[in-house]
Structures are given as C-alpha cells and as structure tokens.
Amino acid sequence: MTDLAVNGNDGAPILAVDGLRVEFRTDAGPVVGVEEVSFAIRPGETVCVVGESGSGKSVTSLSIMRLVEFGGGRIAAGRIGFRRRDGRDIDLADLTPAEMRAVRGSEIGMIFQEPMTALNPVFTIERQLTDGLIAHKGLSAEAARRKALELLQEVRIPEPERRLKQYPHELSGGMRQRVVIAMAMACEPRLLIADEPTTALDVTIQAEILALINRLKRETGMAVLFITHDMAVVAQMADRVVVMYRGNVVETGSVTEIFEAPQQEYTKTLLAAVPKLGEMRGRPAPERMRGFAAPGSKTPQQPEARPARPRELIEVRHLSTRFPVRSGLFRQTTAHIHAVEDVSFTIFAGQTLSLVGESGSGKSTCGRSIMRLTEPSRGEVLLEGSDIARLDSYALRRVRRDMQMVFQDPFASLNPYRRLAAQVAEPILNFGLARGAELEDRVAGLFDRVGLPRSFLRRFPHELSGGQRQRVAIARALALNPKLIIADEAVSALDVSVQAQVLNLMMELQADLGLSFLFISHDMAVVERVSHHVAVMYLGRIVEIGPRMAVFEDPRHPYTRTLLDAVPVADPRVRRSREDRRARTLPSPIFPLGHEPAPSVYEEVGPGHLVIVE
Amino acid sequence: MRRFRTSKGMIGLILVGLAILIAIFAPMLIPAGLSTKMHMAERLHPPSLKHILGTDELGRDLFYRVMLGARTSLEIAVSAVGMSILIGLPLGMIAGYFGGWLDNVLMRIVDALLAFPALLLALTISAVLGPNLRNTIIAIGVAFTPYLARIIRGEALRVAQLPFVEAARAAGTNNLNMLIRHILPNVMPATIVQGTISLAFAILAEAGLSFLGLGTQPPQSSWGLMIQASRNYLDISAWTALVPGTAVALTVLGFNMFGDVLRDILDPRAK
Question: ipTM higher than 0.85?
C-alpha cells in the first residue's frame, strides 16, 4: 500500500471545510441543513463528527462527497478544500459533476451505515469490487480480479477466493461491512468518510471493524472522517472531535479536551447521558441517570427497604422456539431454526431481568414467545402459577392484560392514522374497562404518568419526536396496569439524551408501580444501569445468568467476557489497543429435522449465578 | 379542506364538480328530443353556431349528446367502481391480514378471475344477465374486483406485519377491531389511487360493452357509445371522437387529481 511519504505527511490538511452552509429546497422555501461548519483533517488523522439525529452530521459528510445534491440539497456557501494526490488544492464545492466523479471513489472513499443495502444484492462480491477498479484505474479484468483478492485479504476476510464468487446475502453483517470497506479502499483513497459504519453491527463486530479502520489508517496514512452518534466510539477512535447540534458546530477540540474539559453545555449533557460500562460497580440496585431527573419527580434513589426475598412473578422453564425452514416445490419443512433452545429463568415482582446478546441470539424471540406473539415449541411460562404456553386464545387474551410490550421502533409501533389518545385508549376499550369521561380521564392520567403534555392527546404520531413516541408506547403498555412489561430494544433507536430520559421513566415507573421488566437489549452499558438480574444469550441459549453485579463483575462464561470486552469505553484515556483480527464466522442455528440438542446444564458459581456447562 | 387550496386540488374539485353537476342537471335542462333528433341533411357537420360541437353520423347534436351522456357514463363508472371497492376491499383485507389457507383460497379465486380479460368477463356477465344499466354496472364491477382485491391484499399483508399491529394484538385487540381500526386506514391510500384509476377504465369498459350491444342501448347516449360510433368517421370528422373523448379525459383527470388530494387529506402526516 501507499507509504506515508506519498500522502505527504507534512501536516497540511487534506480536507479543510470552511464556513459550509447547505440548504434544502422544500415547498415552504429553502431550509438550512447545516451552516457555519468548519474543520480540517490532516493525513493520518481521525476526526469524529458527533451529534444526535438531526444534527447535520450526515449532511456534512454527504456534502463533502457532493452526494447531498442527489437528496435535494445545495451547497449555498463555504469552501471544501481538498488536496489532491498530485498536490493541487481544489474546492470540492466548485467542481463540475464530471470532475467530482473522478475524485469520488478514487481519492475519497466512503463507507455507509447499512452494509445490507450498500451492496447490490444481484452482483457477486467480485463484480462489486472490480467495477470500481476497472472504471477508476483502468485495470484489465484479470488484474482487477487479482487486486480484488488482495483487498479482501487486506480487510482480513477468511477464505477470500471463495468470497469473490459469493453474493452479499451469503455473508454475515460484519463480513459485508468488510467488503464495503474493501470497496472504499480499492483506489487507495486519501480520505475515508465513514458514516455510522458500525451502528447496525453487534458490539463484537463493531470492535473488529473499528480495529480494521484504525489499522488501515495507520498503514496507508489516509485521513478519516468518522461520523457517529456514539460517544464511546468517539473516545476510542478520534484524534479530534467536532460536536454538532441542529446544523451547527457546537464545539471542536482534541478528543481529550472534549471528554475531560467540555466547554459547551450541550457537550456536557451529551457526555452525561452516555451510560458508562463499569460505573455501577459495587451497587446492587439499578440507579437512574444523573442530570435527567424529570421536574417534580421523587428522589432518584431506590427505596432500600425491600422484602428480603421478592415474590416470583414469572417463571420460564425449558422454553424452546423453533421456526420451520421450508423449501422445495411443496414447501415441506426441511429443517428447523432453533431460535430459542431450552431457556429457563425467573423474573421477580418489581425487578428487571435483562436479556443481552447479539443479533440472532434469540433474545427477541424469547420475549415474543413469552407473550405468545410467537408460538413457543415447548416449555412452560408460568405467570403466577398458570402456564401461559398452554392457554387457549380466550384465556390468553385475559392473561395478556398482565403483560405488555414496548417495541424497538417508535416510528413503526404506532399507527400513523390514529390519534394518540385513541391508541392509548385502545387496550382499555378492548377489555371494556372504562368508557366515556372515565376513559378520557384514564388516558389523560396515563399521559401525565409518562410525562407527556395533555395537548398531545389529539395529535398524530408523526408530530412527535422519537422519544415522545416511545413515551406514548409506554403509556399504551401501562393502560392495562400490567405486572410485566417486555421492553424489546425499547431505547435502542433513541438518541442518547432521550434514551437516558426514557430509561429514567422506566425505572421511576418500576419504583412507583412495582412493575417488572424483561429488558431485551444489546447494549451492555444500558443493561448495567437498569437490571437486577442479567441473562446472556448466545445462539438461542442462556450461557450465563445471575444477579447483575455477579455477571458484570465476575463474568465466567467466555462469551460474556467477549461481549463485555468489546464494549467501547467512553474515555479516550482507556483506549484498548485491540489487534485487528480475522473476521469470525458464526455457527448456524439451523438443524436438520428431528435433531435434539442436548439440554442446557448449568453450574452454580455463586448465589443465583449460573453458567452453562458446555 | 385547506388541501384543496392548491392548484391541483382546485382543478380536481372543479372538474369533478362540473361532471357531477352536468350529470345531475343536464337531463332536466335539455329537452329530451334535442339529443335524439336526427337531421340527415346535417350529418357529420363540424362545429358551427347552430351546433356548437358539431353533429354525429346521424345529424344529432353532439353538445346535447355529450351533456346527456355524462349521467350514463358517470353513473356506470362510479357505481361499478364503488361496487368493486365494496367487494374487493374487505376480501383483500381479510386475505392479507389473516393469510394462510384463507388467503390461498381467496387469492386463487381472484387469480382465476384475473385470467380472463376484464372486458371478456364483463361481456359474459352482461350477456347472461341481459343488457341494461344495472347489469352493466354489475358486470363491470365484478370484472374490476379482482384487481382491487389483489392490490389491497398486498397492502394489508404489508401493514399486518408492522409493529403497531403486533402492539395492538398484545393489547388484546380482536380481529374485527384490528381490521377496522388499524388495517383499513392504512390501506385507504392504495384503495383511493386504484379506485380513481379504475374510474377511467370503467368509462372505457362501458364503451366496449356498448359497442358490442351489451351496454347502454341507443338512443340513450353515453360517452363510450359515442366514441365507439365515431370510429368509422375518424378520417372525415375527427371531432365526433374528440368531443366525447375530451369529456372522458377531463373527467378522469379530475378524478385522479381529486383522488390524490383526498389521499393527502386522509394522511395525517401530509399536513
């Protein structure tokens, strides 16, 4: 690869954005996307642009690539200085589309958030890699193939020869993102723009991809512009940080300056909202996030006086859920996906059990099986003694009053065509619990309860922000006074500051109403905040379960350790110099018909702390 | 109502309003004899002061005929499309929402109907039931139902998989309420779009049936019938086709614009 001298590491910036202003045309006239954005990136330097949704961080990166024009945007003012390979200084904002095409992909590479959609599903990996090489570098087909193979080796994809012939859907998410990076690296760009490259990935995969980007940067001396919403990732990656809020740059500085001496109020809030793994060390009960107490709410401390042994609310015994894999002309079942395999746990009244695991671990299916939104294949779910898994649909409907669910996507979990009051009232109406003025009172009371103004009653979902919508979803779940709420990645789609508020609301409700939560999440730091008990899932099984302190402070199963190890720490001084390893391939949860996996056997390593015996 | 204050909304509203007004009032205002009175000496006359839109192949005044044809054409088109929505919407929603064997059975029936050209199907129904206004409506309505059911089914299938449906199920909503409260409003946009497009095809289908002697019966006039009758004289008097053709085009345009705006009004997000 190129050495540092070629890229000219004389300290002069490769990219210098100065006073950038981007406008979008709308029916109501031009709307400012970002304004007064200025920063510079030197060779071999990583600049992180961090901000919440709507901060303009993606607009900034798309403007540098001049891709913003395809989304109806226009660079209204400012200069985007870029030093080309041949040393000429150009203004990207002034280039003609044809000139820009020569720079794009060749001197500036880009990685997108969604590795699923950034690759064309109908072309092989080879075709996607070689297209750019043939177009930009004029390589012959054979030379391009050799180069493609080299690139796959460069991004450490195992069995690169075989991968070239595969299609994107045959690769895992992490592997796909490696291919996307290989494509971006194909023409040895001087600047790599990574727009939320790890947001859609699991933590362990995220750690791998971050290490890969760091190694490539070191080896080639390219500049990296890294867009993210995750302060922990910033702490691990950045040399310098640009904090954005509502289209403006709030603060710029070196990574230590930003984390240790933030100047602006917004930066401080952002940092405070990030749950940091390990900060709950030695504290057995969940605690609310600081600085986000709702006005008028009670002291954030949990009441210490709790019964010596809490009551068991729900007991799950040997739960398994399998999905048929159908194939052939007559769609016969040819195999089973063992999504949940022999899972047992107990949730106590007024407590939170968290299910953690990566995508495909079966944690969501597990939650849905308990609600019987997915039919479990075997096992028992005992809610105060009665087995939910065996109820008929009539009895099930009654039992569901005691269990409600909050879903991940606050945009999709509310009906866009119905007013919020009607949606929150629906469960009450379904069970005929109230009508008329009494119903209205109850719904208004629920809005008060979750901290939404009553003026929202008559509104539609699209008029609310993500966090507000999630509050509506929680109000709807509370409408039936349930004993258990299953929160399936309920805060994952929210911005950190909003996430903190929603988490606090959930903990407050638990303290006031004695609710139990089954909290399904992939985010270890959040789980550490909210849980009494934690169960770690891997390939459909619980590999480790126990009190939160035991699992987090004394993890016994290797997978739990891997998971905890992969979480980026929101502190630039504790950077983990992770070596860039080869991508792993996950074992498959698909088994032939009639396959009976061995039952889960656990060893008790501490009080209530169980680890699976392999 | 603010939505109609766009130029598109206004044009749609005016065109549809005009078509409906003409359909209602033309038969009251125009003496019955005028549109059927034949002047053999004035056949295929171009527009003149006496006949402002000219005359047809039998010397009948095209202005009066197109005015009176509005009622027949609109009545058939609106009723037939209404009927296809009345049948196709619930069928599609049920098939898409419940899925499984019910979906399979319903959609195989729909597929079987789709295998026949819509016009042929309408022709058969009309021939069996006998040619009159009511049977023409039934024939076209039945022939259009499978198209609508197919589209609604696809939409219902998509909506049924959205999390809010699952959330409602977890909250104890029964199937009937689920269909009415959650599925119906979400499939309405597709219904409106398909419905307004169908109106145009219904007007033309009526023309086809009339041409084959199974739709509107002369001397009653309809736009379709007029277009069909004009085909032999296109080279010498194009206006005999242009007059009813323009009426159809303007009405269809109006309904399409009206439908677009109606869809936006029903969508709370488009404010």
Answer: no
